[in-house]
Amino acid sequence: MFSTVLPLLMLNIVFHNVEVIARLVILVKPSIRDIIELDFDHLGEANYDRL
Fold first, then answer.
1. Nearest-angstrom CA–CA distance, 48 and 33
2. CA neighbor of 1 nearest in space, from 16, 9, 12
């Protein structure tokens, strides 16, 4: 009994952790994108000021 239940329980825990990490990445990803866009906007403004 335990030999079949334990691997399934371990798989369930692993998949749950993967799901939590994936949700965190999805939440953090837009903020990283915004930071990169802000950096590019700032670089663009600096280049226009030089011209």
1. 23
2. 9
Q: What is the CA radius of gyration of the chain?
A: 22
- Cα 21 to the chain's mean position, in Å? 7
Number of domains composing the chain: 1
Task: Determine the pLDDT at residue 16.
Answer: 85
| Confidence (pTM) | 0.43
Q: Is the pLDDT higher at 13 or at 28?
A: 13
The domain containing residue 18 runs over which residues?
1-51
User: What's the pLDDT score for residue 5?
Assistant: 78
Q: Which residue has the tokens 């990169």?
A: 36
